[in-house]
C-alpha cells in the first residue's frame, strides 16, 4: 500500500520481468484458504548453455538457493539448493521457442532427474535422449513408462513407474516428488522403426508434479491441464510456493481460467505462466493472465524462454 492506495509494482532485471499485483489483501470467500503473504521478489540469474562433453551443472555448486529456468512451452530446469538438476517436460530440439544454445541435448550440462507430465510430443520431447545421455531416470505417468519399456525406447532402470498420489525420493530423502491430477489426455505417438509409420500407444493419465526441495520450497508444475475444482485441495494440502501454470488456451486453460486457478484455488506465493505462444492455437498471453488475476498478493513472474530466477 502506498499513500493508502492499492498499487502494482513491476520488477525488471536482465531479461526477467516480475509483475507483483497490488498489495491490498481482499477478503477471500469462506471456502478458500487465506492468501499467502505478499511475495518478495526473486532475483534474476544467468545460466549459460553447456558445450558438448561438458557435464557440469551451471552454476554447478551447492548454492542454498532454488534456481528455476524456463526453456519454452512447458520445459523447465530446476537446480535445487543442494545442486541437483531436475528437468521437466524437456521439449528442446524441435521446439520453436527453445532459446538459442539449448537446441542440443548436451546443452544442459548435467541432468539428475527427468519428469514428464504426459506423453504428448511437446512434453515427452527429448526425454529418452536425455535419459540415455545423462543416465537420468524418467518419471512420468505409469502407462507412459510402461510403454517406453515395452517398445524398447528406454530400459526399465531408466523408466521406473509410479502414479498419482505416489511420492518418490529418487534424489534422496531431501527432495520429494508427488504426482497429482491433471485434466488432459496422454497418447504416445511412436514411430515404428520396422515400418517407418507412426503408431499410437498407451501414455497413461496426465499428471502434475509437486516438487518439495531440500529447504522446503515447493514447486507445482501443472503440465497441461484444464480447470478443475480439486486444484483447491492441491493448494490447501500441498501449499506450493511456486506454480508453473499453462495459460495458452485451446488445449489447456486460457488466461482467465488460469487466473481463477491461481488466485482462487491454489493461492501460491508466485506463478509463472507457461505453455503459450508456441503454435497459433495457444493465444493466451501473460499480460491477459496478469490482468485477469487483478488485485492479489501473488507474484506473477513474466519470463521469456531462457530466463532464470533464483528463490
Describe this structure in words.
Helix content is 16%, strand content 24%. With 311 residues, it is of the alpha/beta class. The strands form 3 sheets. It has a 9-stranded mixed beta sheet with strand order 1-2-17-16-15-14-13-10-9, with helices on one face. Strand 15, helix 5 (255-266) and strand 16 (270-274) form a beta-alpha-beta unit.
N→C terminal distance:
24 Å
Structural class per helix/strand content? alpha/beta
Question: Portion of residues in helices?
Answer: 10-25%
Q: How many H/I helices?
A: 6
Give the strand line-up of the largest sheet: 1-2-17-16-15-14-13-10-9
Our estimate of the beta-strand percent is 15-25%
Radius of gyration of CA atoms, rounded to a whole number = 19 Å
Largest sheet: 9 strands, mixed
N-to-C SSE string, H for helix and E for strand: EEEEEEEHHEHEEEEEEHEHEHEE
Residue stretches low in confidence (pLDDT < 50, at least 5 long) are 1-33, 53-60
Amino acid at each position: 500500500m502506498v499513500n493508502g492506495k492499492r498499487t502494482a509494482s513491476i520488477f525488471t532485471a536482465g531479461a526477467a520481468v516480475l509483475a507483483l499485483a497490488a498489495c491490498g489483501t481482499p477478503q477471500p470467500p469462506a471456502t478458500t484458504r487465506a492468501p499467502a503473504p505478499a511475495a518478495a521478489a526473486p532475483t534474476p540469474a544467468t545460466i549459460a548453455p553447456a558445450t558438448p562433453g561438458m557435464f557440469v551443472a551451471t552454476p554447478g555448486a551447492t548454492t542454498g538457493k532454488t534456481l528455476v529456468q524456463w526453456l519454452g512451452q512447458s520445459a523447465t530446469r530446476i537446480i535445487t539448493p543442494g545442486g541437483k538438476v531436475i528437468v521437466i517436460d524437456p521439449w528442446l530440439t524441435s521446439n520453436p521457442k527453445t532459446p538459442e544454445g539449448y537446441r542440443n541435448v548436451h546443452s544442459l550440462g548435467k541432468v539428475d532427474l527427468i519428469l514428464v507430465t504426459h506423453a504428448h510430443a511437446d512434453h515427452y520431447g527429448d526425454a529418452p535422449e536425455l535419459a540415455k545421455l545423462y543416465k537420468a531416470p524418467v518419471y512420468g505417468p505409469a502407462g507412459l513408462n510402461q510403454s517406453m519399456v515395452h517398445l524398447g525406447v528406454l530400459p526399465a532402470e531408466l523408466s521406473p513407474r509410479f502414479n498419482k498420489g505416489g511420492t518418490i525420493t529418487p534424489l534422496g530423502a531431501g527432495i520429494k516428488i508427488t504426482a497429482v491430477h491433471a485434466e488432459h489426455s496422454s497418447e504416445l505417438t511412436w514411430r515404428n522403426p520396422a515400418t517407418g509409420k507412426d503408431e499410437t500407444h498407451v501414455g497413461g493419465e496426465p499428471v502434475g508434479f509437486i516438487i518439495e526441495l531440500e529447504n522446503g520450497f515447493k514447486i507445482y508444475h501443472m503440465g497441461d491441464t484444464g480447470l478443475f475444482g480439486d486444484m483447491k485441495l492441491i493448494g490447501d494440502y500441498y501449499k506450493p510456493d511456486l506454480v508453473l501454470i499453462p495459460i495458452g488456451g485451446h488445449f489447456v486453460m486460457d488466461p482467465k481460467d488460469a487466473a481463477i486457478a491461481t488466485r482462487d484455488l491454489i493461492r501460491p506465493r508466485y506463478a509463472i505462466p507457461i505453455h503459450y505462444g508456441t503454435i497459433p492455437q495457444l493465444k493466451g498471453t501473460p499480460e491477459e493472465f496478469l490482468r485477469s488475476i487483478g488485485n492479489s498478493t501473488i507474484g506473477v513472474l513474466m519470463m521469456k524462454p531462457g530466463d532464470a530466477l533464483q528463490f
